[in-house]
Amino acid sequence: MSAVGGRDAGRKGADRPPIVVYEGVVKRFGAFTALDGVSAQVNRGEVVCLIGPSGSGKSTLLRCTNALEAIDSGRVVFDGAPLPRRESEARHVRRRMGMVFQNFELFPHMTALENVAVGRSTVLSEADGTAKVRARALLAKVGLADKADNYPSTLSGGQQQRVAIARALAMDPEVMLFDEPTSALDPETIGEVLGVMKQLADEGMTMVVVTHEMTFARRVGNWVIVFDHGRIVEQGPPAQVFDAPREVRTREFLSHLGWGGDSG
Amino acid sequence: MKLDWSVPWQYRWMLADGVLVTVMLAVLTMAIAIPGGIAVMLLRQSGSRVLRAVGAAFVEFFRNLPLILLVYWSFYVLPIIVDIQLSPFATGLVALCLNVSAYNAETFRAGVNSIRAGQRNAGLALGMSRWQVMRKVILPQSTRRILPVLASTWVSLFKDTSLVSVIAVGDLAHNALQIRSQTFRVLEMLTVMAAIYWCLGYPQAKLVDWIHRRYGVSE
What we know:
heterodimer; A: alpha/beta; 6-stranded mixed beta sheet; 9 helices; B: mainly alpha; MetI-like fold; 10 helices
């Protein structure tokens, strides 16, 4: 395994240039170093899962991927070009990535349909009617065609998160970023969200997923990156990371979660 | 002392004129100071340090001067600076707009800052510009929080318009005081003037109370 850890020939999408490359990314919040020289890559068509203890830097890396956070040193390269520093240019890159948040962050003053349509009508200046036709199709895709006119406050957490996924998909993103998408959900609605994500993965969507759902990472992920204290402890295919972890920290983290291997 | 209530009645059309000017002043001031306040708030939220400083200076300057001083300043100093002689009405309007825009900017800023950062990030992540996030995501949500404060500002503004009477704008206060000095009917005119202001202001205050109950955010 190379130092970067991503150039394995057998890795999914290794035959094409990677969509995202992190090169020695450092991010500080005051005296706290959230990311301490992170290097990794995301191949096209891959599902990369970022796991590790809370506060280990996973979510920060995700937010650096679409320039919601500016990095202090290193580079984040998207589709061959480093992320622009200027806010006015950053948004042209952001529209090519979809993001799903832990707390959904649906717009509460818009219906589900409007939430999904607003990106296309505002950012792509698409006609309202056209954007809504597309939005309806996406709501159907996530199983919420009948909730188009509902406001977010009348939807369950799982339904809200599926609307949020549809909202991100509306921009036809080249990569989807998921920031702990099921952490704020009731246990009974986690499955419906993971189901939609699995369906996306099966369709070949490139995904970066920060998650505590080890079963999802094991079964759906193509590549797993383990974080601790702002550094990558270990990365590799899920079979290696979950069934034969090389690092002590990985084993500790997995056993702390009660991970006893995936028998299914 | 003998009271003569025929005097206010005799001058009723002059008083009505004054009421009209007062209402016009208040309406026009608010109509200008709402976009004005948004503009100043956007300056204060801008990415540029210089623009932020300009916005902050505007607010701190015009909010912390007594309104009557601002009225005199607009009347005597402003024409020298910009080399345009405005009518007394326009001059009074400028002074009120500067003051109320500064207040509104702070009201809007508080409303905007009350919307959590995640909402902004959700807009940005879709590729919206900061301005699009403001227009589509933040402002519509902050309206509920802003409206009650704006209503209170309106009630203060309605009474504060009386201060422009010192530069001979023909508002209710100015006309009533003019009639007083022509007829020497001090008690009658002041009473009538108070009654008119109260009758106009009271329903507004009640309306504001209703808006507070209806839209006030309790969290």
